Protein backbone atom coordinates (compact mmCIF):
# COMPACT_ATOMS: atom_id res chain seq x y z
CA UNK A 1 0.00 0.00 0.00
CA UNK A 2 1.52 3.38 -0.99
CA UNK A 3 2.34 5.83 1.78
CA UNK A 4 0.62 8.61 -0.20
CA UNK A 5 -2.31 8.50 -2.60
CA UNK A 6 -1.33 8.68 -6.26
CA UNK A 7 -3.26 11.94 -6.66
CA UNK A 8 -0.84 13.52 -4.16
CA UNK A 9 2.41 11.78 -5.00
CA UNK A 10 2.42 12.13 -8.79
CA UNK A 11 1.86 15.93 -9.01
CA UNK A 12 4.40 16.43 -6.24
CA UNK A 13 7.01 14.27 -7.96
CA UNK A 14 6.47 15.87 -11.38
CA UNK A 15 7.17 19.32 -9.98
CA UNK A 16 9.93 18.12 -7.67
CA UNK A 17 11.78 16.32 -10.45
CA UNK A 18 11.56 19.38 -12.72
CA UNK A 19 13.64 21.33 -10.18
CA UNK A 20 16.38 18.74 -9.84
CA UNK A 21 19.64 19.21 -11.78
CA UNK A 22 20.40 16.75 -14.55
CA UNK A 23 22.88 14.07 -13.58
CA UNK A 24 24.54 11.39 -15.77
CA UNK A 25 23.53 7.79 -15.23
CA UNK A 26 27.17 6.83 -14.65
CA UNK A 27 29.96 8.73 -12.95
CA UNK A 28 32.18 10.37 -15.57
CA UNK A 29 35.00 10.81 -13.03
CA UNK A 30 35.52 7.08 -12.51
CA UNK A 31 39.15 6.17 -13.48
CA UNK A 32 38.10 3.05 -15.39
CA UNK A 33 35.17 4.72 -17.10
CA UNK A 34 32.68 2.38 -15.47
CA UNK A 35 30.64 2.46 -12.33
CA UNK A 36 27.37 1.25 -10.93
CA UNK A 37 24.38 3.04 -12.39
CA UNK A 38 23.18 5.92 -10.29
CA UNK A 39 19.99 5.23 -8.31
CA UNK A 40 17.06 7.01 -9.93
CA UNK A 41 15.86 10.14 -8.16
CA UNK A 42 12.29 8.86 -8.13
CA UNK A 43 13.31 5.74 -6.20
CA UNK A 44 15.10 7.84 -3.58
CA UNK A 45 12.18 10.30 -3.43
CA UNK A 46 9.77 7.46 -2.70
CA UNK A 47 11.93 6.44 0.26
CA UNK A 48 12.12 10.05 1.48
CA UNK A 49 8.33 10.32 1.38
CA UNK A 50 8.10 7.09 3.36
CA UNK A 51 10.47 8.55 5.97
CA UNK A 52 8.38 11.73 6.14
CA UNK A 53 5.08 9.91 6.58
CA UNK A 54 6.15 7.13 8.92
CA UNK A 55 9.04 8.86 10.69
CA UNK A 56 11.11 5.68 10.46
CA UNK A 57 14.89 5.57 10.34
CA UNK A 58 16.55 5.24 6.96
CA UNK A 59 17.86 1.77 7.85
CA UNK A 60 14.28 0.56 8.26
CA UNK A 61 12.95 1.96 4.99
CA UNK A 62 16.04 1.11 2.90
CA UNK A 63 15.56 -1.55 0.24
CA UNK A 64 17.71 -3.67 -2.05
CA UNK A 65 17.57 -0.97 -4.70
CA UNK A 66 18.25 2.01 -2.42
CA UNK A 67 20.49 1.93 0.65
CA UNK A 68 20.21 4.19 3.68
CA UNK A 69 23.51 5.88 2.74
CA UNK A 70 22.07 6.80 -0.67
CA UNK A 71 18.95 8.26 0.96
CA UNK A 72 21.02 10.41 3.35
CA UNK A 73 23.42 11.57 0.63
CA UNK A 74 20.70 12.47 -1.85
CA UNK A 75 18.60 14.12 0.88
CA UNK A 76 21.45 16.43 1.85
CA UNK A 77 21.95 17.43 -1.78
CA UNK A 78 18.27 18.29 -2.21
CA UNK A 79 18.20 20.13 1.12
CA UNK A 80 21.13 22.36 0.15
CA UNK A 81 19.42 23.18 -3.15
CA UNK A 82 16.22 24.17 -1.30
CA UNK A 83 14.05 22.09 -3.62
CA UNK A 84 11.25 21.51 -1.13
CA UNK A 85 10.85 25.23 -0.43
CA UNK A 86 10.64 25.90 -4.17
CA UNK A 87 7.97 23.20 -4.52
CA UNK A 88 6.03 24.77 -1.65
CA UNK A 89 6.17 28.17 -3.36
CA UNK A 90 4.93 26.68 -6.63
CA UNK A 91 2.11 24.91 -4.80
CA UNK A 92 1.05 28.23 -3.26
CA UNK A 93 1.04 29.87 -6.69
CA UNK A 94 -1.13 27.08 -8.10
CA UNK A 95 -3.53 27.32 -5.16
CA UNK A 96 -3.76 31.10 -5.47
CA UNK A 97 -4.45 30.81 -9.20
CA UNK A 98 -7.16 28.16 -8.92
CA UNK A 99 -8.74 28.78 -5.50
CA UNK A 100 -7.35 32.06 -4.21
CA UNK A 101 -5.40 32.74 -1.03
CA UNK A 102 -7.30 34.74 1.60
CA UNK A 103 -4.56 37.07 2.78
CA UNK A 104 -6.59 39.74 4.54
CA UNK A 105 -6.40 37.65 7.72
CA UNK A 106 -3.20 35.84 8.69
CA UNK A 107 -2.54 33.64 11.71
CA UNK A 108 0.83 32.89 13.32
CA UNK A 109 1.60 30.38 16.04
CA UNK A 110 4.34 28.01 17.17
CA UNK A 111 4.32 24.28 17.84
CA UNK A 112 6.81 22.22 19.86
CA UNK A 113 7.64 18.64 18.87
CA UNK A 114 10.25 16.09 19.92
CA UNK A 115 13.86 16.11 18.68
CA UNK A 116 15.53 13.27 20.63
CA UNK A 117 18.75 13.38 18.58
CA UNK A 118 19.40 17.07 19.23
CA UNK A 119 21.04 18.97 16.40
CA UNK A 120 21.38 22.48 15.06
CA UNK A 121 17.74 23.47 15.61
CA UNK A 122 17.01 21.60 18.85
CA UNK A 123 16.72 23.00 22.36
CA UNK A 124 15.48 22.15 25.83
CA UNK A 125 11.72 21.72 25.65
CA UNK A 126 9.76 23.58 28.37
CA UNK A 127 6.83 21.16 27.96
CA UNK A 128 8.78 17.88 27.93
CA UNK A 129 10.90 17.91 31.12
CA UNK A 130 13.81 19.66 29.45
CA UNK A 131 14.30 17.05 26.74
CA UNK A 132 15.47 18.10 23.29
CA UNK A 133 12.68 19.55 21.19
CA UNK A 134 11.99 21.41 17.96
CA UNK A 135 9.77 24.44 17.49
CA UNK A 136 8.25 25.49 14.19
CA UNK A 137 6.70 28.91 13.71
CA UNK A 138 3.97 28.89 11.06
CA UNK A 139 1.95 31.56 9.28
CA UNK A 140 -1.25 30.68 7.44
CA UNK A 141 -3.94 32.48 5.51
CA UNK A 142 -7.53 32.80 6.72
CA UNK A 143 -8.34 29.20 5.74
CA UNK A 144 -5.23 27.57 7.19
CA UNK A 145 -3.05 27.28 4.09
CA UNK A 146 0.61 27.25 5.29
CA UNK A 147 2.44 30.20 3.77
CA UNK A 148 5.83 29.95 5.48
CA UNK A 149 7.48 27.98 8.27
CA UNK A 150 10.56 28.68 10.40
CA UNK A 151 12.42 26.13 12.51
CA UNK A 152 14.03 26.88 15.88
CA UNK A 153 14.90 25.24 19.17
CA UNK A 154 12.09 24.40 21.57
CA UNK A 155 13.54 26.83 24.11
CA UNK A 156 13.01 29.82 21.79
CA UNK A 157 10.15 32.18 22.58
CA UNK A 158 7.47 32.72 19.96
CA UNK A 159 7.81 36.51 19.82
CA UNK A 160 11.37 36.71 18.34
CA UNK A 161 10.33 34.24 15.63
CA UNK A 162 7.55 36.51 14.37
CA UNK A 163 9.87 38.62 12.19
CA UNK A 164 11.47 35.73 10.20
CA UNK A 165 8.07 34.04 9.92
CA UNK A 166 6.40 37.09 8.37
CA UNK A 167 9.48 37.72 6.22
CA UNK A 168 8.58 34.54 4.33
CA UNK A 169 5.54 36.32 2.89
CA UNK A 170 7.85 37.92 0.33
CA UNK A 171 7.51 34.78 -1.79
CA UNK A 172 3.87 35.67 -2.49
CA UNK A 173 2.83 37.77 -5.45
CA UNK A 174 1.50 40.50 -3.19
CA UNK A 175 -0.52 41.29 -0.10
CA UNK A 176 -3.76 43.27 0.27
CA UNK A 177 -3.67 46.81 1.61
CA UNK A 178 -5.38 45.83 4.86
CA UNK A 179 -3.87 42.78 6.55
CA UNK A 180 -4.72 41.61 10.05
CA UNK A 181 -2.38 39.20 11.85
CA UNK A 182 -4.02 37.07 14.54
CA UNK A 183 -1.70 36.11 17.40
CA UNK A 184 -2.00 34.46 20.80
CA UNK A 185 -1.03 36.09 24.10
CA UNK A 186 2.62 35.02 23.76
CA UNK A 187 2.97 37.95 21.33
CA UNK A 188 1.29 40.44 23.66
CA UNK A 189 4.25 42.79 24.00
CA UNK A 190 5.88 45.89 22.56
CA UNK A 191 8.31 44.12 20.13
CA UNK A 192 5.51 42.28 18.30
CA UNK A 193 3.30 45.36 18.10
CA UNK A 194 6.20 47.48 16.86
CA UNK A 195 7.03 44.94 14.16
CA UNK A 196 3.42 44.88 12.95
CA UNK A 197 3.37 48.69 12.80
CA UNK A 198 6.59 48.72 10.75
CA UNK A 199 5.16 46.17 8.31
CA UNK A 200 1.86 48.04 8.08
CA UNK A 201 -0.20 45.16 9.49
CA UNK A 202 -3.02 45.32 11.99
CA UNK A 203 -2.61 43.05 14.99
CA UNK A 204 -5.34 41.07 16.70
CA UNK A 205 -3.43 39.84 19.76
CA UNK A 206 -4.99 37.90 22.62
CA UNK A 207 -4.66 39.63 25.98
CA UNK A 208 -2.90 38.01 28.90
CA UNK A 209 -5.17 36.89 31.69
CA UNK A 210 -8.16 36.14 29.45
CA UNK A 211 -9.01 32.45 28.86
CA UNK A 212 -7.98 31.24 25.38
CA UNK A 213 -11.33 29.76 24.26
CA UNK A 214 -13.01 33.13 24.79
CA UNK A 215 -10.64 34.98 22.47
CA UNK A 216 -9.57 32.28 20.00
CA UNK A 217 -11.21 34.19 17.13
CA UNK A 218 -9.72 33.54 13.70
CA UNK A 219 -6.50 32.08 15.11
CA UNK A 220 -7.76 28.51 15.34
CA UNK A 221 -6.92 27.77 11.68
CA UNK A 222 -3.16 27.83 12.31
CA UNK A 223 -3.58 25.36 15.16
CA UNK A 224 -5.51 23.06 12.84
CA UNK A 225 -2.69 23.32 10.27
CA UNK A 226 -0.19 22.36 12.95
CA UNK A 227 -2.26 19.24 13.57
CA UNK A 228 -2.23 18.47 9.84
CA UNK A 229 1.56 18.72 9.81
CA UNK A 230 1.85 16.63 12.97
CA UNK A 231 0.27 13.83 10.97
CA UNK A 232 3.73 13.29 9.45
CA UNK A 233 5.88 11.08 11.66
CA UNK A 234 9.13 12.86 10.77
CA UNK A 235 7.74 16.14 12.16
CA UNK A 236 6.28 14.64 15.34
CA UNK A 237 9.65 13.14 16.24
CA UNK A 238 12.42 14.71 14.22
CA UNK A 239 15.73 12.85 14.39
CA UNK A 240 17.54 15.05 11.87
CA UNK A 241 20.46 17.16 13.13
CA UNK A 242 21.21 19.46 10.20
CA UNK A 243 19.10 22.60 9.78
CA UNK A 244 18.81 22.32 5.96
CA UNK A 245 17.44 18.77 6.27
CA UNK A 246 14.97 19.79 8.99
CA UNK A 247 13.74 22.67 6.83
CA UNK A 248 13.53 20.33 3.84
CA UNK A 249 11.05 18.11 5.66
CA UNK A 250 9.07 21.07 7.03
CA UNK A 251 8.55 22.64 3.60
CA UNK A 252 7.88 19.25 1.99
CA UNK A 253 5.12 18.61 4.54
CA UNK A 254 3.76 22.14 3.99
CA UNK A 255 3.70 21.54 0.22
CA UNK A 256 1.73 18.33 0.74
CA UNK A 257 -0.79 20.17 2.93
CA UNK A 258 -1.25 22.86 0.25
CA UNK A 259 -1.56 20.26 -2.51
CA UNK A 260 -4.11 18.21 -0.59
CA UNK A 261 -6.25 21.28 0.12
CA UNK A 262 -5.97 22.35 -3.52
CA UNK A 263 -7.25 18.99 -4.76
CA UNK A 264 -10.11 18.84 -2.27
CA UNK A 265 -11.34 22.37 -2.86
CA UNK A 266 -10.82 22.32 -6.62
CA UNK A 267 -12.86 19.12 -6.84
CA UNK A 268 -15.85 20.90 -5.29
CA UNK A 269 -15.39 24.15 -7.18
CA UNK A 270 -14.72 22.87 -10.71
CA UNK A 271 -16.89 19.78 -10.63
CA UNK A 272 -19.77 19.73 -13.07
CA UNK A 273 -23.29 18.97 -11.95
CA UNK A 274 -23.92 15.30 -12.73
CA UNK A 275 -27.55 15.33 -11.59
CA UNK A 276 -30.08 14.83 -14.38
CA UNK A 277 -32.04 17.85 -15.44
CA UNK A 278 -35.58 18.08 -14.05
CA UNK A 279 -36.84 20.35 -16.82
CA UNK A 280 -39.38 18.82 -19.17
CA UNK A 281 -38.75 18.90 -22.88
CA UNK A 282 -41.51 20.57 -24.89
Describe this protein with a few key phrases.
282 residues; 6 strands; globular; 10 helices; alpha/beta; six-stranded mixed beta sheet
3D structure, described in words:
With 282 residues, the protein is of the alpha/beta class. The longest helix is centred in the C-terminal third of the chain and has 27 residues. Strands 1, 2, 3, 4, 5 and 6 form a six-stranded mixed sheet that branches. Helix 4 crosses helix 10 and helix 5 runs parallel beside helix 10. 42% of the residues lie in helices and 13% in strands.
End-to-end separation: 53 Å
User: Which structural class should the secondary elements be placed in?
Assistant: alpha/beta
Give the low-pLDDT segments.
none
**What number is the mean pLDDT?**
90
- The helix fraction, in percent, is 40-55%
Q: Helices, strands, pairings?
A:
Elements: H1 6-18, H2 41-54, H3 58-61, H4 68-81, H5 83-98, E1 105-114, E2 123-124, E3 132-140, E4 146-153, H6 162-167, E5 180-183, H7 190-199, E6 202-205, H8 220-229, H9 233-236, H10 243-269
Parallel strand pairs: 1-5, 5-6
Antiparallel strand pairs: 1-3, 2-3, 3-4
Helix pairs in contact: 2-4, 4-10, 5-10
Concise description?
This protein has 282 residues and is α/β, with parallel strands linked by helices. Helices cover 42% and strands 13% of the residues. Helix 4 packs across helix 10 (243-269) and helix 5 runs parallel beside helix 10.
